[in-house]
Amino acid sequence: ELGIRIPRPLGHGPSRFIPEKETVQVGHEDAAMHTLFADSFATLGRLDNVTLVMVFHPQYLESFLKTQHYLLQMDGPLPLHYRHYIGIMAAARHQCSYLVNLHVSDFLHVGGDPKWLNGLENAPQKLQNLGELNKMLAHRPWLITKEHIEQLLKTEENSWSLAELIHAVVLLTHYHSLASFTFGCGISPEIDCEGGHTFRPPSVSNYCICDITNGYHGGEENHGSPAGSLPVSPTESVCEVEALMEKMKQLQECRDEEEASQEEMATRFEREKRESMFVCSSEDEELAPARDVSRHFEDTSYGYKDFSRHGMHVPTFRVQDYSWEDHGYSLVNRLYPDVGQLLDEKFHIAYNLTYNTMAMHKDVDTSMLRRAIWNYIHCMFGIRYDDYDYGEINQLLDRSFKVYIKTVVCTPEKTTKRMYDSFWRQFEHSEKVHVNLLLVEARMQAELLYALRAITRYMT
């Protein structure tokens, strides 16, 4: 009546992939979750949708919030507005407008210069110089060399200190992997964010134009079956869980009986690495980045490419030569105190997190499955564990699951609801969110390993 346009939310709940009624309802959470919500609200000034989906796993969320708070707000080598700007640069590489928009407002809130937001070329040269590292970390971290590090540390008046560079690298990897989580879980923008509201009255059909632009179409809701396949009957899905558990049992028995030779293990790794190149999403069309996001980074055509393409041979990164536990952790902790500790805790929680359940089954040891997921991601990045039999990956991860993993980790902006629906059809949404936590942390650690190894080589 007053002529004020009232916004209404476009989505239902914090995720486009998870029905609202299956997420934690604010006001109905337990005491521990309530404390986490309060912490998140105090830190971010809002209860964001990432938190509302991550809270399926409160132990992980607590570690995540603590780490993010330290990176963005506590004492550290970089000024606050630089931190948020680096977050914008990193999220923009994956066209993640959800995270870009959040950090644009945070950047302005801490006194950042609005002119920088018109495009990377308006930011200080020092930040522009970070563009190359941002690009390679996000898409092809195996190409990073000590020469890239040297360029950043030795560019006269715009040079980075080692401590500043470590802070920047951790921020870049944090936001690349958070973009993976955002797309992998179908996080919806909040009502006050761009794309989170409309002024139009509710439409007659169940979806509106924003849904189509966000990659799902009304018809897809009804049959969550993968492209070109028939809907799956409940018994088929139950069989899927039983079959997976049976494979885990058989693999355990084989492990107990005999161990493959080192040569055989190396061959299986190379085979899996090669095969991972042929896993690509069926929805593989190129997405043109929106101008409002693409202005925050250079070279918009640069994206993920498999490392063995076109006869390029990238040497395998052997974990016993350079690992997070023995090398990366101490380097980070020395140059940016406490962050190594926080990251280490977060990696451990994600990797070891278990409720000993699989779909409807209880008292299940899922360590073999978690390790297969983690090592598959590192394998896609050319990282090898000598003591792991890569033959297990093909036994435990089916093709639709591999497509989902590779898309979320390498080209998260191409993730669709169809992909999310097509793997582990009988599992709980909380279990799929758990998968995303593994993807996020394995990806972050892989990027960090390549960057930290290059920094170590530069230092020595």
From TrEMBL:
Keywords: Cytoplasm, Oxidoreductase
GO cellular component, one term: cytoplasm
Sample GO molecular function, one term: L-leucine binding
Superkingdom of origin organism: Eukaryota
Chief site of localization: cytoplasm
Catalytic reaction list: a hydroperoxide + L-cysteinyl-[protein] = S-hydroxy-L-cysteinyl-[protein] + an alcohol
Entry-linked Pfam families: PA26
GO BP terms, alphabetized: cellular response to L-leucine; cellular response to leucine starvation; negative regulation of TORC1 signaling; positive regulation of macroautophagy; regulation of response to reactive oxygen species
Cellular location(s): Cytoplasm
The family this protein is said to belong to: Belongs to the sestrin family.
Protein name per its UniProtKB record: SESN1 protein
Natural source organism: Nothocercus nigrocapillus
Top-level taxonomy: Eukaryota, Metazoa, Chordata, Craniata, Vertebrata
